[in-house]
């Protein structure tokens, strides 16, 4: 999953980038609404974490602009504005969720998982494919009820493929889900992770559509 963080507080922004990256998200971080506008025009994201108290143009204006343009990107507002009026204003402007600073990182992760789950049209948190089960909250995978040890990158690739069962995802799309800006990407990284997943979960789980990308079939 690829996230954009818009936060002008250097300590919070850096902490979010590091913490979310450790959870397997590909994270890009900007500090102004103007930079966020340019980034969102140029790149695709699965979710947006948005501060409201930004320099010059505030986050609420950016949020309203996105919704007026029919941009349905899931947005989690993360702000120190904590009155009922502020929360109502943020949600009515188009936020999908609203979390007040100071915040618990574990709560932020849970809200983010719920937000992205709803955006993908799923009611249950766990991802199933036959006897394979992936639990995003516990960061845990089982096959026929037996735990399977995966690296963070292997887990991230399996998760995005399960969330898009029946769809072919290109290598570039998978790379985008794994790496943020300025992260070195080895030319065969995706192929290596796919190879490891096949060894651990079965060679027929992930299909290679030659010249297009990779997929997990819609049905086991």
From TrEMBL:
Q: Could you provide one GO biological process annotation from this protein's UniProt record?
A: regulation of DNA-templated transcription
- UniProt keywords, alphabetically: Cytoplasm, DNA-binding, Phosphoprotein, Transcription, Transcription regulation, Two-component regulatory system
DNA-binding region, residue intervals: 124-218
Alphabetical list of InterPro entries matching this protein: CheY-like_superfamily, OmpR/PhoB-type_DNA-bd, Sig_transdc_resp-reg_C-effctor, Sig_transdc_resp-reg_receiver, WalR-like, WH-like_DNA-bd_sf
Which residues does the UniProt record annotate as the domain OmpR/PhoB-type?
A: 124-218
A molecular function annotated in GO for this UniProt entry is: transcription cis-regulatory region binding
Mark the residues carrying the PTM 4-aspartylphosphate: 51
User: A Gene Ontology CC term for this entry?
Assistant: cytosol
Tell me where it resides: Cytoplasm
The record places domain Response regulatory at 2-116
The family database entries (Gene3D superfamilies) matched by this protein are listed as: 3.40.50.2300, 6.10.250.690, Winged helix-like DNA-binding domain superfamily/Winged helix DNA-binding domain
**CDD domains in UniProt:** REC_OmpR_PmrA-like (cd17624), trans_reg_C (cd00383)
* SUPFAM superfamilies per UniProt: C-terminal effector domain of the bipartite response regulators, CheY-like
Q: What is this protein called?
A: Response regulator with CheY-like receiver domain and winged-helix DNA-binding domain
Q: What is the protein's species of origin? A: Beggiatoa alba B18LD
């Amino acid at each position: 999953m690829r996230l954009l963080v818009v936060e002008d507080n250097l300590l919070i922004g850096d902490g979010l980038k590091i913490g979310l990256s450790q959870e397997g998200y590909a994270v890009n971080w900007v500090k102004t609404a103007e930079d966020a506008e340019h980034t969102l025009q140029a790149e695709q994201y699965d979710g947006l974490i948005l501060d409201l108290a930004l320099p010059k143009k505030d986050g609420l204006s950016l949020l309203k602009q996105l919704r007026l343009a029919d941009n349905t990107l899931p947005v989690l507002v993360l702000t120190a504005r904590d009155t009922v009026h502020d929360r109502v204003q943020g949600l009515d402007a188009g936020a999908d969720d609203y979390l007040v600073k100071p915040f618990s990182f574990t709560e932020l992760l849970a809200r983010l998982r719920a937000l992205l789950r709803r955006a993908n049209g799923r009611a249950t948190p766990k991802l199933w494919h036959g006897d394979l089960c992936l639990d995003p909250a516990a960061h845990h995978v089982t096959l026929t009820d037996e735990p399977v040890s995966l690296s963070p990158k292997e887990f991230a690739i399996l998760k995005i493929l399960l969330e898009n069962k029946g769809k072919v995802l290109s290598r570039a799309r998978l790379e985008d889900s794994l790496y943020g800006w300025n992260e070195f990407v080895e030319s065969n990284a995706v192929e290596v992770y796919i190879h490891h997943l096949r060894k651990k979960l079965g060679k027929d789980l992930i299909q290679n559509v030659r010249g297009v990308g990779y997929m997990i079939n819609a049905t086991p």
